[in-house]
Every structure is written in C-alpha cells, then in structure tokens.
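Pipeline run #58 for the internal structure catalog. This entry was flagged by the ingest filter as a single-chain record with no existing model, so it goes straight to prediction. Upstream metadata was stripped on purpose; only the residue string is passed forward. Reviewer on rotation: M.T. Logging verbosity set to normal.
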Amino acid sequence: MNLILDLNLIREADGSHIGGKALALAVLAGKGMRIPRAMCVTREAYDAYVGSTGLRERISLELSRKDFQDMRWEELWDASLRIRNMFLNTPMQEPLASVLRDALNESFGDAPVAVRSSAPGEDSAQASFAGLHESYLNVRGAYAVIDHIRLVWASLWSDAALLYRKELGLDVHHSTMAVIVQELVAGQKSGVVFGINPADSSQTVVEAIHGLNQGLVDGTIEPDRWLIDRSNGRIISHSPAGRTKIVVPSPSGVSLEPLPPELTQTPPLSIEEVELVNGLAIKAEEVFGNPQDVEWTFDGNVLYTLQSRPITASLQEGGKDDRSWYRSLSRSYENLKSLRAKIEGELIPGMIQDADGLDDTVLASSSDSDLALEIRRRLRINRQWDETYRKYFIPFAHGMRLFGRVYNDAVRPHDPYEFMDLLGSPDMLSIQRNRMLEHLARLVMHDPGLARALREAEDLRAFPAFARLFREFVEAFGDLSCYSAQCHEGDAPLREIVLEMSSGRAGAPRAHLRSIEQDEEYFLSFFPEGRKAFAADLLDLAKASYRLRDDDNIYLGRIKGRLTAAVEEARRRLRDRISPVPEGLGDEAVLQVLEDPEYIPAPPAPREAESSQEGFSLKARQLVGQPAGSGIATGPARVILEGIGLSGFKAGEILVCDALDPNMTFMVPLAAGIVERRGGMLIHGAIIAREYGLPCVTGVPGATTLIRTGDQVTVDGYLGIVVIS
C-alpha cells in the first residue's frame, strides 16, 4: 500500500487504509461536489513511524500500567500527555520523512493547508469521533506539515479519544491513524449542517459563523442556527447568535479576533446561502444513503465541502452520545477565562459567606426540632455547593492541562510535567495552613512546658501567645478532624499533629532549582513577540487553575465541616437516649430521632463483607501505578481509610490512601512518600507531593488493601512502582 494517496485516486477499497473521513471526501469529489485539493497520508505511514521508532512498544507499556477498563479519566489524561510528549520528541526517520516531504512539496509547496485526522473507524454510523482527534489550520511548508502530522497521530491517544474508545469497547492497542492534508480555503463564513435534527427527525439544522470553522468546532464561538423542514426545504426558524468573535488565519496558524463591527448585526448566511447549504446536506445524504453531518465553508460565492460524517445511530434514535461529555472535559481558553472570573468573583466569596453564616455555637443550645431544621438546611447548602463544584470548579482544572499542552508543544521538554514547576504557589491555602502548623510546632519545640500541656490536654491559657495562634488556626482551618471547633474529638487531632511536627522531622515546601521568574522567562522565550502576551495570560490562568484545584476543596471543606458539626451534635443527643446506638446509623435516621422522640431506629441491614487488611494468605511485593512525584523513599506504611487513621500519623511514614483530599494534606510535611489508589498527576495528592518534593505514585490498584499499616514500603516516583518489603 502507498504511503500517500491523492484524493482523486482513492477508491472505496482503500477505506481501511485511509479512514472514513478521507474516503467520504473522495466519494463526494467523485460525485462532482467541490472539495479542496487534498492528499491522504495512509495508516501505513503511521505504522511505519511507530514501528521504526519504538513508539508502538512504549505506547503499549504506557497503557498497560493498569487494566485499561479500570483507568479513571485523570489517569488517561496523564498517560495521554506522556504519549503526546513521545510524539513531540521523536523525529520521523528517513526514508519515511523524505517520501512525505517530496509529496508535500510537489502538491502544496508553501501554500497553507489544513492537517486533519482520518482514523479507520472514525466517523462511522456507529461511532463519531468528531472533536476528539486534532485538526490544524494554516500550516505552511513540508517540515511544519510533517510536525503537525505527528501531532495528529498523537491525538489518537488523547484522553478524550481513549475514553470514547473505552466506552465503545474498542481495542486501543491496535488503534492507528491516517491523515488528510487539505488545501486551506480561507472562507469568510463557515459552519456545519446536520442532515437530521437529533431533537426532531423532521428537521435539518444549519449552524454558521463568520470566518473559519475552528471557532464553531471548538465551542469558542456561538453559531447562528436555522431549522429547516426536511420535507420541503422551508426555513422554519432562525436563532441569531451574539456575534462578537471571528477566527482568521494568522502567522501562528489561526487566531481569535474581535468581529468587525459591520458584521456583528449581520447573519453569516443569507436566505439563499442557507438553501445552498441545505442542498449540500441533501446531496450528501443521497450519496451515502443516510443523514450526514457536513462541515463547509464559503469562499466568496463558492461553497466548499470540508468533511462529511454520518450522524450516529444513537443520535438519530434520540439516544445519548457520550462523545459530547468527553469533549466537555476540555475547555477553550476563552471559556476558562470566563470560568475563572465566575469562580473568583462570585463562587468563592459565596462559599466563604455561606460557611461563615453557619454558626456552630448555637447547636448545643438549640431544641431538637430546631437542630433537625438546621441539619436539613446545611444538607441543602452542602448539596448545592457540591453541584456547583462539579459544574464549575472541576472543569476549571483544565486550565492546567491546556497550559501543559501549550508548554510541551513550545518547549518540548524531556519531562512532560516540567510545566508544573511554573505553577506552584506559596499562596495555596494548604501551604498557608501547613506553615501555620509549622509555626505552632516551632513554638512547642522551644518550650517543654507547652509540649507537656499539649500532650496532657491541659488548658492552654497559661501560654497566651500560643493559645491565640492556636485559636486563629482553628477559626481559619478547623481542628483537623471535621473543619469545626464543635466536633466530638475536640482539638485533640490538632494538638497531636503539632506535637509530631515539633519533633523536627517534618518537611518543608521544596525550593526550585531556578526562580519562578527564570522559569517564566524561559517559557516565554519560545514564543514570538506577537504570541508572548497570550502565553503570559495562559500561564497566569494555569496558576489560578493549579491553586484553585487545591483551595476550592478547602473552602468546600469548611461547609462540609459545618454540616458534620451539626450531625455530630445530633448523634451526641442520640447516644444520651439510645444505648447502644445501632452501628452504621445513617444521617436520615438520626434526623428522624430528632423530629420524632418516639421513633426507635432499627439496626441498618448488614453490609456485604468488604475487603480488609486481615486474612491475606498471599502478600503483594511490587505494585505498579502512575509516576506522579519524582524521588525514591522508604518507610513504614500508614494506611488511611476515609479519614480513619489520620490520628497517630508519624514523621517518616509512607502515606497510603484511596485519594488524598486537600483537607487531609496537613499530614504531608510528615510523610516520606505518598501512594494513592486513584490516579492522576493533577489530583490533590500529586499536587501537594510535588510542592514538598515527595515521591508519589498514584493509580495503584488495591493500594489500601494490598499494603498494610506497618509494612516497609519503597516508593519509586520515577517509575511509578511501589515495593513492599
């Protein structure tokens, strides 16, 4: 099979070599539809590249650290980033590069082109990968095109594409990719037409924007929308968009610019043009025998078809297509800026206000009925903020990931996580909290009497300076047991952690090899003058994303703590009335006791036996996960299960947990290393481990059951390996 095929020479039998997108364009061109001049780099070129460079084996190894079906999206993103970095730093070998250069120079010279994916199985009637693989516009010159072909190949392994393949049950290890190189038509108006409206099968949908289609495809620009009656072609309705932006060619590819004022009040399409686009959908459906999703552009009065894919069966039947969810994992730069403004200007102040408005001091004196009402109010507030967190705060974490991609594309570092060195901040709430703890510990270290008072739970008023700082810490961060001074454990956990830190064995946030200013200057040096402002703004946004990834959970923890305090007061009253209290009694049963004094709760149904650390006849010796913090450390394991085990954590222990919540990270200065069952370089445990320079391995299956408290454990944060002695 040839490595390159001209679009005009493609036949239906070539489909498995060129992918659905290229075949569809070739078929439409054969039916007389206007298609930009194009050539297809076949899947054999991809196979030759990954085979000759050893990438095939490295990719397989990366995806075999853990059963693919068990990998969470954070772990898939990490694996995807590492794989993408492999493509960035692995040049194409001769003679493959020579063959591609010659063909590209002959076909396009220095003319601008679009470089698009065309994976076999992509854009079929059963599965649409629209938006999950990369496309690049306005690429010039054979060397630049080959570089972007590698980036398109790398997008075969994007987290969203991997998740979608996982959902469909496809074998990721045999994935491959062809690429279309297509003459760039710099259209003045562009869009898509859906031959059938997923919400109403009697309609066709036309969406259009001014400028290039990139803004519509990536969700940056809202389109004008027309609904058309499929039976007669009559326009049913037109929904105008708020027209403010346009994507245009630029020296760096394409750029988002303000829409010229004269176009803001003008729909992208006239009535006649809407009818032409509808005709395009009708013709494509006639050619392929089913409704199509067609991307198009107008260059002057000439209508070009850029790509065509079948509308998936699930959408035609009104079903759910998870592709949109996978695409929502990634947010555009403009969307992230809007999210940041909302989070910093509205949501965090609202969260703080709600937490401050929940007064724990009145709980003990309230009547049972008033306490029940207060618990229900706090449950409602807590639920609302949980929903807000999922809707706004989690998506904003993509700011780090977007910056990581831009950094790696520009700098091409050996370490795909080098970009994180620019994001650490002493302003993180968890770092501020830990520094306050360290200050308290230093005071104890130099005062034996104070140390004795803490150990023996004595009143601290004899040490007024320390008592004031101790009180300020509780007011700011809680007592480390439930973010509230009213929890039944009192201040014992806080006293204990301060005493342990006063042993002098606690760590401190690491020092960077270079200053942050030097790191930033180094990053910005890779951008031309016209792009430096964007790069600096993206870095600032990524820093906010990194900081809030940790801080938002601490703000949320304060609200959860207020709820816990109220429930704990209810349980205290319950213990005064019922002896013994049924084990595992839920919050709703506790509320019913408060609301109805005659109510006697029944014991909860016994739960199925859970895995425990007892009774193992075999013991794991080596566990494999994701490397998330460089370094190697050995020490006794301390297994933390849902907050159980926080008390008694000792300096030099290896912290082993399901997932390290930011509200637990006060223990990190004492830890020698961190092991987590959940995975991801950008989850809280990995972030705080990196801040303290601790070895960290995440995504370790069965970490909290295969490792037992007291086991001697070695954490290799370079390779992602945990060895149990």
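catalog note: Residues 463 and 568 are 30 Å apart (CA to CA).
catalog note: The chain has four domains: 4-183, 189-317, 334-506+517-577, 622-724.
status: ready for reviewer M.T.
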